[in-house]
Design a protein that fits this description.
By secondary structure, this protein is an alpha/beta fold. 46% of the residues lie in helices and 11% in strands. Keywords: ATP-binding, Cytoplasm, Endoplasmic reticulum, Golgi apparatus, Hydrolase, Inflammasome, Inflammatory response, Nucleotide-binding, Phosphoprotein, Repeat, Secreted, Transcription, Transcription regulation, Ubl conjugation.
Length: 760
């Protein structure tokens, strides 16, 4: 309404600027005007309209505000009132710019993307984080660099420039020579943050803080354009602001001040070849959409305008022949600093952000996957839900597999609807490819292999594999890779839990679907399969099986679950001699059980063992969480020996009060008097000691030998002594406890609940 009132005020001022005789002339010409639709002013009303205000009221009753504006402009031109018409047009243009920027803010400010599934929207400003990119020349091609393991987060960028952090302020910024790029291409796999960057550009431009050299930025979502058969450039522009008819002539007159953004160009599915003589130069000419867009890209239409295009690697070849650009930016994802920055932006609360980032950083697989912006969002969203439930993450039992499967479920939501059977068969083939690659230490796959396996499906392939141009040129076919090595390992593990699909997997490949071969190979000589096996255990849990069924539409094999549990239960029995106490001495056992996230599986697997003995291991937060989860369910655990193990500590300055709720009770069942207040500093033993204080623990011996424990550990140990009556022996050899640490232990020994007999 405000814009409408402003336009009417502008029209009124224009009419008031006419001399009396000119006003009468304009009024006399009104009955002769031809307008589409209904247009008639009763003669008696027109006769009574003896002033600009009354006349304008009569006109707006008969047709729309836009039509009135066109009528007045046309009549002023006809009456040779060009100065007045020009002023009116300038006012119209100024108002249109203001309305368009307001429309852009409403359209792009709130990002509901993946967060819509959790019932909340985020502002672009609150969650956007700068991306790491590398500039690559067209002549070097995206695929000419060897991949050393994963496409994301690599530092070996080959012939491209060194990775840089690309801020939105750097887009279309003049270089040292004062030259400004007219064409910019951002290339990245799904979930790498291309669309979020586009939204950030639109919002900052509308707010007047970015790309101020452009009067207009028109952003087109190529998924929406894909359904359009024919259009002109003028049609495309009009769709960007449907509320009002734009002054197109004025907009197009300043080509240098227009930026076109095409987001997700791969959705158009264009090939690389089109005859040059089909290109057009008139922005109002309606042609097949591909012809119109190629004309815009090749600068036969509006040659002085600027272009920003985002695409997946699959469309790179089609774009190379269209764009007058010497290089493109390949998005590598989040740097280490950007990952931490993203967590802080997402939570908006330093305490929660630090705890969440610490949680992610303590998990090697998860932290590495967070180089993918969409995966960082996944982790933050899940941890945000955990905060709402528990207010802390000390007992967050979400495994890597669960979080990775949630990421895949969100990735599949971006897929257009199709036959579910097509997706199922494709995933069977994809998982087979991943498993074959893991066995052969292979991360790059040739185009022939993709076609032979039936994976060359344009609507599905770009979601899961990155396409790259072969170093030998187009004639030799493209090469493909998974966006991240850990995702390839996840799909490889999925291969072993799926029911056989004879239509999807050949007999020669089906022979590999033997879980026992995978597990025994890992146990004996293929330790590089650790992450694949870890994912395998996570996938056989009932929760993951349900996720595979709902998200991927695939059936899982009950045999896989039986085989992994049978292997795990017999693994340590074969290590221990008959005369020895049965003990668990492999850390990965706890990883596997934690990924399954089932109390019953922990109890059935560890119930036959009484001891845990680990030696010379640096225990990450993930390790500690996995151990704590298993210790809580391990009723028969009588002895823990950690010899020469170290504990990865929290960042300096973190407070325990932000991580765990403190008990204010004392005596049996609570922290000893004088210790509660000292629990403010994080102790590296906190997860383990908290698990041991869990009701049902029957631990008798705790050996922490040559672990380099410090004073902060004594706070937790003293609390454990007061709350664990079955603990009879505590060994702390080669620890630097200091006088304060010793005093803390003495306080614990004086508690009524302490039954310790041996302290070394």
């Amino acid at each position: 309404m405000a814009g409408q009132e402003h336009s009417l005020a502008v029209l009124l001022r224009a009419l008031q600027g006419l001399m009396p005789e000119d006003f009468q002339e304009l009024k006399a010409k009104l009955p002769e005007v031809h307008v589409e639709g209904r247009w008639s002013i009763p003669e008696d009303l027109l006769a009574k309209a003896d002033n600009p205000c009354t006349l304008l009221r009569c006109m707006t009753r008969s047709c729309s505000e836009d039509a009135v504006m066109d009528i007045v402009l046309g009549l002023l031109e006809e009456m040779n009132q060009r100065d007045l018409a020009e002023k009116l047009l300038e006012e119209v243009l100024k108002e249109y710019k203001r309305e368009y920027r307001a429309h852009v803010v409403l359209e792009f400010f709130w990002y509901d993307g993946m967060d819509s599934c959790l019932g909340g929207n985020l502002s672009v400003s609150s969650c956007y984080t700068d991306l790491t990119v590398t500039w690559n020349p067209w002549s070097k091609r995206l695929g000419e660099r060897e991949a050393a393991g994963s496409s994301c987060g690599r530092t070996d960028v080959g012939d491209g420039e060194a990775p840089i952090t690309l801020t939105t302020q750097m887009l279309f910024k003049p270089d040292e020579d004062g030259q400004t790029l007219r064409v910019m291409l951002l290339v990245g796999a799904p979930g790498m943050g291309k669309t979020m960057m586009v939204r950030k550009v639109m919002v900052e431009w509308a707010e007047g803080t970015l790309c101020t050299q452009f009067d207009y930025i028109f952003c087109m979502d190529c998924k929406d354009l894909a359904c359009t058969k024919e259009a002109s450039v003028a049609d495309l522009i009009s769709k960007c602001c449907p509320q009002r008819r734009m002054p197109l002539g004025k907009v197009l007159a300043e080509q240098k001040k227009i930026l076109f953004i095409f987001d997700g160009f791969e959705a158009l599915g264009y090939s690389s070849a089109q005859p040059e003589d089909e290109l057009i130069s008139d922005p109002r000419e309606v042609k097949p959409l591909e012809t119109t867009l190629r004309s815009l890209l090749k600068k036969t239409i509006l040659p002085e305008s600027s272009l920003l295009i985002t695409t997946r690697p699959t469309a790179l070849q089609a774009l190379e022949g269209c764009l007058e650009s010497e290089r493109y930016a390949e998005i590598l994802g989040f740097s280490a600093a950007s990952r931490e920055h993203y967590f802080h932006r997402h939570f908006g609360n330093d305490t929660k952000a630090q705890e969440a980032f610490r949680f992610a950083r303590g998990n090697e697989i998860l932290y590495s996957l967070c180089v993918i912006p969409a995966m960082s969002w996944t982790v933050c969203s899940i941890l945000d839900q955990e905060f709402h439930k528990k207010n802390h993450l000390a007992e967050c039992w979400k495994g890597t597999t669960q979080m990775s499967m949630f990421y895949l479920s969100q990735l599949l939501k971006s897929r257009s609807q199709g036959d579910p059977r097509d997706l199922q068969q494709f995933l069977h083939k994809l998982c087979s490819l991943a498993a074959d690659g893991i066995w052969k230490h292979k991360v790059l796959f040739e185009e022939k292999e993709i076609k032979d396996r039936g994976l060359d499906q344009p609507d599905l392939l770009p979601l899961f594999l990155n396409e790259k141009i072969s170093r030998n040129g187009v004639d030799h076919g493209n090469i493909y890779s998974f966006p991240h090595l850990h995702l390839q390992e996840l799909f490889a593990a999925t291969f072993y839990v799926l029911e056989d699909d004879k239509e999807a997997v050949s007999d020669s490949v089906a022979l590999m679907r033997d879980v026992k071969v995978l597990l025994e190979s890992y146990n004996e000589f293929r330790k590089d399969l650790n992450f694949t096996v870890r994912f395998l255990f996570g996938l056989v849990s009932p929760e993951s099986q349900e996720c595979v069924s709902k998200t991927l539409g695939c059936r899982t094999s009950p045999r896989a679950r039986e085989e992994v549990l049978r292997w795990l239960q017999g693994r340590h029995r074969g290590i221990s001699r008959p005369s020895q106490v049965l003990k668990v001495s492999e850390l990965d056992t706890f990883h596997f059980l934690f990924e399954m996230n089932e109390k019953s599986s922990v109890q059935s697997t560890l119930g036959q063992f009484t001891d845990m003995a680990l030696q010379d291991i640096q225990l990450t937060l993930y390790d500690q969480t996995a151990l704590s989860f298993c210790v809580r369910q391990w009723a028969g655990l009588g002895c823990i020996t950690l010899q020469g193990c170290s504990f990865v500590q929290a960042a300096p300055g973190e407070e325990l009060s932000a991580l765990v709720p403190r008990s204010h009770t004392s005596g049996a069942g609570g922290c000893p008097h004088g210790l509660t207040d000292r629990l403010e500093l994080w102790s590296p033993l906190h997860p383990l000691c908290r698990a041991l204080r869990h009701r049902g623990s029957n631990l008798e011996v705790l050996r922490l030998q040559w672990c380099g424990l410090s004073e902060s550990c004594c706070v937790e140990l003293a609390a454990l002594l007061g709350e664990h009556p079955s603990l009879a022996q505590l060994e702390l050899s080669d620890s630097t406890l200091g006088d304060t640490g010793v005093r803390l232990l003495c306080e614990g020994l004086r508690q009524p609940g302490c039954r310790l007999r041996v302290l070394r």
